[in-house]
Amino acid sequence: MRARATCPLDCPDACSLLLTLEEGRLVRVEGDPAHPITRGFACKKTYRYPERAQKRLLYPLRRVGRKGEGRFVQVSWEEALDEIAQRLMEVLDREGGEAVLPYHYAGTMGLVENQHPLAFFRAIGASELLETICATAGGAAWEMTYGARVGPDPEEIPGNARYILLWGINSLATHSHLTPFLKEARHRGAKVVHIDPYANATSRFADEHIRLRPGTDAALAYALAHVLFREGLVDRAYLQEAALGLEEFEEAARAWPPKRASALTGVPEEVILRLARELGEAKRVFLRVGYGMTRHPGGGNSLRAVVLLPALLGSWRYPGCGALLSTSGAFPLNKRFLGGRHLLEGHPPKGYFRPNPKARAINMNQLGTALTELSPPIRALFVFNSNPLVVAPNTARVKEGLSREDLFTVVLEQVMTETARYADFVLPATLFYEHPDLYTSYGHYYLSWNEPLSPPEGEARPNTWVFRELARRLGLEEPTLYWTAEEVAQSLLDTDHPYLQGITLERLKREGFVRLNLPRPFLPFAQGPVRFSPPPEVIPTHPEPGYPLILLTPPAKSFLNTTYGPVEALKEAEGGEPRLLVHPLDAEPRGLTEGVYAVIRSRWGQVVRRVHLTEAPIPGTVVLEGTWWEGDAPDGRGINHLTSEKLTDLGGGSTFHATAVEVEPIRFAQ
Ligand SMILES: Nc1nc2c(c(=O)[nH]1)N[C@H]1C(S)=C(S)[C@@H](COP(=O)(O)OP(=O)(O)OC[C@H]3O[C@@H](n4cnc5c(=O)[nH]c(N)nc54)[C@H](O)[C@@H]3O)O[C@H]1N2
Ligand SMILES: Nc1nc2c(c(=O)[nH]1)N[C@H]1C(S)=C(S)[C@@H](COP(=O)(O)OP(=O)(O)OC[C@H]3O[C@@H](n4cnc5c(=O)[nH]c(N)nc54)[C@H](O)[C@@H]3O)O[C@H]1N2
Ligand code: SF4
Ligand SMILES: [Mo]
Fold first, then answer.
1. Sorted alphabetically, which PROSITE patterns does this protein's record hold (predicted)?
2. 115-129, 273-287, 349-363, 392-406: which has the minimum mean pLDDT?
């Protein structure tokens, strides 16, 4: 059988895939040629999904060993669910809903399996989890500046954009379906410039790579604005109509002549001048920003400063031009009942366990602290769609929390992750072709629906099934808890918004994916408004005493966060083990040579990695690509042993690229 399904992974491309199944098992993945963004190819990662599927969990498990040891016995769903419900009721009776915490993120992007499980937690008044690990700093910055998270339609870039800036995004690795549009635009005369602290696949593709010091983007943006104002290269007519608070911004830009910005950013003065003039001349600029630059203490302000540049140039007037962070704001779904959000609006209490609109909120970047210091404590933790032991900052803290004997932990998973090893119960989850779901995208404007292509293998079950079963056992009456995926989707589509006109579940089921009814050309901010005030602040990322280097930990091309961690071929493609990229100028004084093992230390912990000497990073910066599983590191420690729970200036986001470290070769005892 060969049939269509949307890729569920946390990737802007939300590809349409053609899956070949034999006796319910996935044997082949192809890109769907009919999808205008997928264009017939998937990615090197997802072609390997069948190998990942072979490592899946098939039965519920109960822990018999110590936490983290990974010893489990198979149990029936009845046993598992009855015991979980009972343990949960004890916690709720004794300590109330806030002692329960769901920890979840984006293992699947399907709205039903990603968000609807939260209805259960809201119905019992659990602590709320703030979903901040990835996109909230950028999101908050964007919303302050433009409002809705939309931008140019990638399909309209070719033939329109004359200048393409890829800023703080390694799009060739992390957003590969943008590449054909970039190539076509370049073929029609556009120049492509990449702005990033280290040279990677995208820099090699670009016509020019500008390296800057991490966390200094706002200064570079101001210097570009400075030159644009000074040389009369801004689009005054557009700004007159569209800009709010421009004077204050212009004033702030005056303080950043290229010379000053050059000293902070490491970008030569003449490069800043030339870039500003080229942009001013091109006007039709497509700026693609990633979340990379936002993972710094000043990341929100950096992103604001950068995404204002196309507004200065009037780029928004032209199709395929302007700034793009995410397209997610174009999907005007009715989310009122998704994940029981209405329960936070002060729904009249019903039954014994109750919603709590005032439940405390826990920032997911601070899981370690939440599990070890919070008072009153978390007593029951439910993890789904996430692998926090590896992906959350300050792993030592997270492990300490997960090791607590008085913490009852349930992990819903597809594979035995390092997080799952700490669970009291591990529950096997379905794969994306086994459950129905609705998908949006953050890189394009197509909505899609997955119909299950096969019954679940073994005893795997969707997340929503598990929480329905628990709700029944707790006697919860809230009707949205028992909605089917179709009912959730119908409710999401229940809106009069013109972008969704004529898009019904029936149509989605028939066609698989449907383009939103956006005007063509799509010119979201052609008349603004663009908020220039308050002017963004320049909050650079600094090394610390004793830790003179900045460590970046960006995504690897062959991985998708930790999801492909168990696939050998992909690990091989990434060099077999995680490697630290070190510039020769930083290596030399430390005695680091090619291939040696080195200790990387931060204030939070230390790990051992093999060193690779390369001129890719700007001196002063070291890079470790990919969130590898702990077991694949030479010392069995994940990279987040080094990172901190510090939050961004806006949106309470993560600061994964701002870690101050020192690196030393390992000296073996004689
Ligand atoms: N292959 C692959 N694709 C993925 C993922 C993956 O793990 N692997 N992850 C998915 C997810 S969850 C997300 S959020 C997105 C990732 O989205 P992004 O975070 O946008 O990731 P990248 O595209 O790798 O861009 C990160 C880039 O930012 C750079 N950077 C770091 N600090 C700074 C800075 O201060 N200034 C500037 N200008 N650049 C900086 C890094 O060097 C890196 O090249 O990708 C998704 N796609
Ligand atoms: N140092 C460092 N840390 C980082 C990052 C970084 O760049 N550097 N990136 C950060 C970013 S951008 C993000 S988005 C986060 C990602 O963090 P997570 O969202 O936790 O991503 P994954 O590591 O891929 O883990 C997803 C898990 O969900 C499981 N899963 C998939 N589908 C389902 C399902 O239907 N049901 C259930 N129950 N489980 C499912 C998968 O098996 C997988 O183990 O990591 C962050 N951590
Ligand atoms: S991971 Fe991204 S590029 Fe790869 S198939 Fe999925 S959506 Fe497409
Ligand atoms: Mo992310």
1. 4FE4S_MOW_BIS_MGD
2. 349-363
Judging by beta carbons within 10 Å of its beta carbon (0-12, 13-18, 19+), is residue 619 exposed, middle or buried?
A: middle
- pTM value is 0.98
The predicted pLDDT at position 351 comes to 73
C-alpha 657 – ligand 1 centre gap (Å): 10
- pLDDT tens per residue, range 413-440: 999 999 999 999 999 999 999 999 999 9
Q: At residue 346, does pLDDT exceed 60?
A: yes
For 2-53, CATH number out of 3.30.565.10, 1.10.1060.10, 2.40.50.140, 3.30.200.210 equals: 3.30.200.210
Residues with CB under 6 A from ligand 2: 10, 105-108, 113, 133-134, 384-387, 391, 412-415, 417, 429, 463, 553-555, 560-563, 627, 639-640, 643, 656
229: CB partners within 8 A, 6+ apart:
250, 253, 254, 312
173 CB within 6 A, ligand 1: yes
What CATH homologous superfamily does 137-325+525-531 map to? Dimethylsulfoxide Reductase, domain 2 (3.40.228.10)
| Rounded distance from Cα 240 to ligand 3 centre (Å) | 41
In this predicted model, what pLDDT tens digit does every residue of 498-515 receive, in sequence order? 999 999 999 999 999 999
Mean pLDDT computed over every residue of the chain: 97
Centroid of ligand 1 to alpha carbon of 632 (angstroms): 21
Q: Residue with structure tokens 């979840």?
A: 104
Distance 10 CA to ligand 2 centre (A): 8
Q: Give the model's pLDDT for residue 352.
A: 81
Side-chain half-sphere CA neighbours of 60 within 13 A: 19
Residue whose Cα lies nearest atom 32 of ligand 1: it is 293
Cα(154) to centroid(ligand 2), Å: 26
In this prediction, residue 102 carries a pLDDT of: 98
**Among the bound ligands, the one closest to the CA of 10:** 1
Mutate to test the pocket of ligand 2, among 391, 425, 466, 562 (most ligand atoms within 8 A of CB): 391
Contacts of 504-512 with CB under 8 Å at 24 or more apart are 505/449, 508/438, 508/447, 508/448, 508/449, 509/449, 509/451, 512/4, 512/6, 512/16, 512/448, 512/449
Q: What is the pLDDT of residues 195-241, one digit of tens each?
A: 999 999 999 999 999 999 999 999 999 999 999 999 999 999 999 99
